[in-house]
Records
---
Amino acid sequence: MIVRITGTGSMLPAKQVTNLEISQIVDTSDEWIRERTGIGARYLSTGETVASLATGACEKALEMAGRTAEEVDLILVASCSSEMLLPCSACQVQANIGARRAVAFDLNAACSGFMFALNTAYAYLQAGIYKTALIAGSEVLSKIMDWEDRGTCVLFGDGAGAVVLEADASTNAGRGLIGFVQYSDGSKGEALVCESRALHNPYYSEESKNTYVQMDGREIFKFAARQVPVTIEEVLQKTAIPKEEISYFVLHQANARIIEAIAKRLDMGLEKFPLNLDQVGNMSSASLPVLLDKLQREGRLDRGMKLVLSGFGAGLTYGACVLEW
Ligand code: ACO
């Protein structure tokens, strides 16, 4: 069975905020942020939610795929910043778009969330359980940022991206998703944390917690620069595809310097590593599908092109996938 992406979509909040504007909130500068990260601006929610952004992205992806919501069997939303614990964002998306037949649930693997959700949906489709899946990565990270911590709040943005994934038995389907590798290393989880609300019940009360993102930036940098190239090489080896055949390495947009380090270790030209973090910042699980949608809508993806996708982030979690467009 061939499993392929047949549509992409994205939705960003209405308000874009430049580095200059951020420098009026915390002690920072456009120069510092650009030099260290490559980020020039990000979109921040002025009321948009994980569910509303995911809904917009999913509607656009369905439109591109030429599918109706009623044809969707499975909806997965990857997020680490949902505004509702119950119901999950995927069920809200299901209701919003009217995908009455779909099974819907959320998945949290931080910045690897979209990759892991893609792999999960792939397994369902490959097994013949479902035929059509909608996978979104959606984040409103601005609500879990400490807006007095210049070391983190300048890095992240809000937004959502989605793809339609279909099982296709036709002869001209190409190869679609070819192979995945994915890993988790919980022993290094403290490098990037965000605690949930404190336990408070009639029998036990915890101290109030810091419920904002706290990050050891250098540790994350080292992890990504070291582990991601190894993971990409592994998936290429597993699928027997030479790296020279890859048209684009579509990587999680954490930081331009991380991506440069990865390109160097892979010994591949930077022109094969598309970037959009200049305009959108780090959107965690939304990063990959928003960039994929941008490439598709700019006409840069042709049928038959081979791509590597790679996500990495809190957990720690990381993975890579090879696909034919
Ligand atoms: N503006 C100005 N100065 C700042 C800022 C800021 N926004 N943030 C930190 N500084 C200061 C610090 O206070 C410190 O000052 P000091 O020397 O007087 O104490 C100085 O800059 C250096 O701070 P570091 O934290 O050591 O800065 P570093 O050079 O490591 O850069 C950065 C920080 C950009 C976060 C870097 O560690 C990095 O790129 N890490 C990767 C992490 C990442 O991208 N995370 C994204 C989320 S995880 C993911 O998506 C996988």
---
Amino acid sequence: MYKCAIILAAGEGKRMNSDTPKVLHKVCGKEMINHVIDNIRSCNIEDVNVVIGKGAEKVRKGTKSRNISYSVQEDQLGTGHAVMCAEEFLKGKSGSVAIFVGDGPLITESTVGNLVNFHEEGEYSATILTSIMEEPAKYGRIIRNANGEVEKIVEFKDCTPAEVKVQEINSGMYCFDIQNLLNTLSKLNNNNNQGEYYLTDVIEILKKEGKKVGAIDVPVEEITAVNSKVELATAEIIMRERINKKHMENGAIIIDPKSTYIDWNVKIGRDTVIYPGNVLQGDTVIKDGCTLYPNNRIDNSVIESNVTVQNSVVLDSNIGENTTVGPFAYIRPDSNIGKNARIGDFVEIKKSTIGDGTKVSHLTYIGDAEVGTDCNFGCGTVIVNYDGKHKNKTVIGNKVFIGCNSNLVSPVVLEDDTYIGAGSTITHKVPKGSLAIARAKQVNKENWVYDKYNKR
Ligand code: UD1
Ligand code: CA
């Protein structure tokens, strides 16, 4: 059967107190609305329409990569009105439409799938996701008849004292038969406490027309909507727990899941050990058997197997097998570190390639350089890549030894097997196999101190 989905996202989200539209706030590195879209898509529902209004242009931009269609709701006259604005999207279609909210990122792929299957297999005209809440606060109440069938949804503000006591609530997420929904939308009115067109009223109308209405009870956690930054943090905790659990089931070892922050799209291999304070972001991939000691931020990077990283920042870069990074290293974008390499403490690498087996053990800056294999950088080497106007390139061959506290003034080339005396400032190419020393020769002035101070 044909299936499509509508996501309501036209509301303002005043309580977020933000310049960013509510649905574009991120949970574990992904916009809330994109979590909803991706879950819908993974249930093979391709046709997705988002109702936008407040902050429409930003929402369009923030969801552009998802290849969806939009309906515009100029004035926010209620959830029923929002769906009316998507009438063009629904017209001429027959099958099912699932409706979700853009600020409910915790709905899972399996619940989306169950909702649609239950709805279609039971041949319902409407199916509601509901939840049982100890304190249902402002949620709409699910009112059932003597046979236990859903009769209607009553909004909190329109409830009688008896209805307020009902603990089964409306999640605001549903599946409808498209034709039944379209026929009913035109019958909605705004004669209620809030003067809005309620989508929830569709249920009572369908029921009165003798149509079949179903409900599925799901955990409260999944349907919790985010209305404030406090609730955003709560959603983040729930999502983080799910992500960490998935990685542990896939074979990662997370010492303290509560203090490990992994974005939704990160991949982690088997037997990789993650200590507290790691922040793994973007499309990062950590392969098998790595050890991430405490306090790393790794963004959009690929870490090959058996790498150790400690107290370091790695951005948009690759780290080869068996390499160690840190403590206190800073690997900036577009760097490629080889296998069996060592990037030690207080080393910064920017837009550079470092060959296999090369050691940069401490206090060194390497920028815009191509470095070969099995080189050794002495403590305090600086690649002088910037002349005040341009960034210049340095090329270093294989098996190059650079003495401590040297400057390599770019552009410059150090050919294979070269050796740089400590304290040198290298400004010219060093030919293969040569020793370069570029510093003043040492002069000893005997008894200079005693003579000066007349101490003899
Ligand atoms: C709605 C339900 C309520 C349910 C609750 C669950 C109605 C009338 N009530 O209430 O039964 O318990 O959700 O969270 O549907 N939106 C628009 N255009 C509008 C109004 C809302 O796009 O004109 C969007 C909002 O951006 C939001 C969603 O619809 O994503 C829900 O709107 P909201 O105002 O939060 O509905 P509630 O009053 O909470
Ligand atoms: Ca709400």
---
Amino acid sequence: MLWFQKKKTTMADRGEKVDDRLQHIAFIMDGNGRWARRRGMPREFGHSHGAATFKKIGRYCEKIGIRFMTVYAFSTENWKRPQKEVDTIMEIFDEYIEDCFREMEDDNVRVRFVGNLAVFSESLRAKMAKIERETAHKPFMLNIAVNYGGREEIANACNELIREGKQEITEEDISAHLYTVGSPMPDLIVRTGGEIRSSNFLLWQSAYSEYYFTDILWPDFSAHDVDQAVSVFYKRKRRYGGV
Ligand code: IPE
Ligand code: IPE
Ligand code: MG
């Protein structure tokens, strides 16, 4: 390579890792539809590319030493979309599940599906449960939020507590009944696609998360963009209400 073509390296290229301040990163993977429309393609095309980006970013986050990653794949509100789009997203999800089966022996990923899974077919739920069981010993925790809504999650936690006979509910009780139980609260939540809102993602868990918003559309999101978010995160002062 010529000197003036110096390749932009990533944290992973340089062998750098995050420290304990950044254990859990979450992504609101937004902008697939617009990415496709800008190419004169149907929105579904964006979802396929978005799925590929998700795999690439997952591998990258693991490489730089992040231990927990949560991705927003499908919200409780996304059922409002045209049936054809919903069907395609579900097909992509199915393919992903099959990929998990093929790859789970060789990789370090512990997969967890977070959300109200009751809407999925029994056979799909059985597959999800099997993946969760068989990857339970792996070190890199990946929470995939499907049919996930932060409000639904909190209401569900309360209902479970009622069924357990609780008369009074503490914050700890709710935390212990969230779908994401076992993962620490996210340190950093990244939203691509230019919108500055949470869209019902990790409402309880995000109380003290740092947010990073970027206009980059999810299918274009790269390892360099992860590095950029990480470096902004490290400049933040987390005070948790203190001084
Ligand atoms: C995010 O991309 C993926 C899902 C919500 C499933 P969008 O499909 O919301 O893309 P935009 O925001 O319309 O561009
Ligand atoms: C949030 O994106 C949900 C996911 C990324 C899965 P949306 O595209 O659904 O959010 P809104 O409608 O712009 O708030
Ligand atoms: Mg969107």
---
Amino acid sequence: MSTPTITKTEARLIGHIIADQEANRADEAIDRRAPGTDEVVSQVLAGGSAEVAAAVRAARTAFDSGAWPKMSVAERALYLNRVADLIDANADQLARLDAEESGKPITTAEGDIGGAAGLWRYAAALALTMKGQTFTGNGPDYTGLVLREPVGVVGLIIPWNFPALILSQKLPFALAAGCTAVVKPSEFTSSSAHLLVKLIAQAGVPAGVVNLVVGDGRAGQALTESDDVDLVSFTGSTATGRRVLAAAAGNMKKLSLELGGKAANIVFADADLEDAAAGVVHGVTFNNGECCVSQPRLLVHASVADEFIQEVSRRMQRVRVGQPLDRETQLGALIHAPHLKRVKSFISGAQEYGGDVITGGQPLSDAALGKGQFMAPALIDRVAADAPIFQEEIFGPVLGVTRFTTASEAIGLANGVQYGLANTIWSKNTDTVLDVAKALKSGTVYVNTTIDAPPQMPFGGYKASGIGREMGEAGFEEFTELKSVSIRTGKRVNSFPQTDWEGVA
Ligand code: NAP
């Protein structure tokens, strides 16, 4: 059953939530217009340094004198599992909020929410495995303990493309480790974070453990500058990531940066070309192409290029562009008008470098798409490796094709950008797959599948795609500190070198 258009929604007021107290008033609020209809669907309070300071104080008190960091891991896991159950119980509402505000297809949003609940459950399981190390090999009287401790108060900054999902790649892992948190969602997509923080309170997580400050980049900047925040986990563009890196220098806080990407799909002649064509189209249209591991570069072996491009073009033309809340929609509305304009500019830019537009890029005339930010997915052949379309993150449904003749040429092209988040290999030859996977400079390599990341697999970037890892055991460990405790037992037999031990009382 399809829902043809978004029904008119009362604008929601989205405020900060600090120590379970919700702020409903402010001088300044930001209107959020749904990308599918241009209607105002929510108003977000514009938090700044005062709200961030209050939220950090609440998180600091909850960490320094509250129950959360001292609780047994079994008890923390119980709370995280309760949150997961509440996410399941509220999945329809969470998915609708994310689809409406981000413009992604409702079916993608539903997948996000299912994934989010899974991440809370996985983090609960990881909490139970929290462990340090013991070293006993340094003499009979020596015991070395490596204690694993929560890092403290963490600031979590979330982008708009996977609002509930990326929040869930960070927050449950931080909570599992015993940290307390201040969450700053994107001004464009704050409603699901607001509901999630309420569900966390409903699950019984003590007040002050999770706090929410909404607003624009000023709130994020204040969070990264705060001397009372011990770690910032940021997901967003590489440009903002550089600002976060500089702001964090004040108190040398720990940082986890999940930044931009520019993945390539590398299609060898021995691939299953039908699977590869489906994967390539999915790779550039999934989540409207607004995905850090989106695959806007197609590197294809010259011997199969013409036939393969034809198949990709055929499939791209069949992608259904439509309103985000329509269940038939495969490609929704881009986040806002300036972003749509920028994405389209890559098409004309590619032509200036000799690229051929095979399909897409034309204005859409369907009346149901009204005032929304829609575009047909675009395919451009003969993209030069120095063209902006090859080098820069597009973050929209635009695919550029470049041909290669040898594996080393394909590796050079794939690695020839500033980013290193993900790449995909399509080949049935094990030697090719392993050689190329090892040579690619990216944190993730998909083989004969794409955008396929279960929570056990650590996720993060090489090069300008970031610092640190999310998910997997490594994602949990990001929110911990190690403390080495060296212990000698009994009366010391040997004095310390260079010390007159006799002289010490
Ligand atoms: P963005 O503009 O960098 O914003 C990310 C977050 O940072 C938002 O909450 C934003 O608030 C906030 N922010 C803005 N200025 C800030 C500042 N000076 N200090 C601290 N925080 C600040 O990124 P976006 O456009 O939302 O997201 C798209 C980007 O995220 C793409 O580059 C994509 O590749 C990347 N991304 C990476 C991953 C990954 O895992 N590697 C995953 C998803 C997305 P406002 O939105 O309110 O301005």
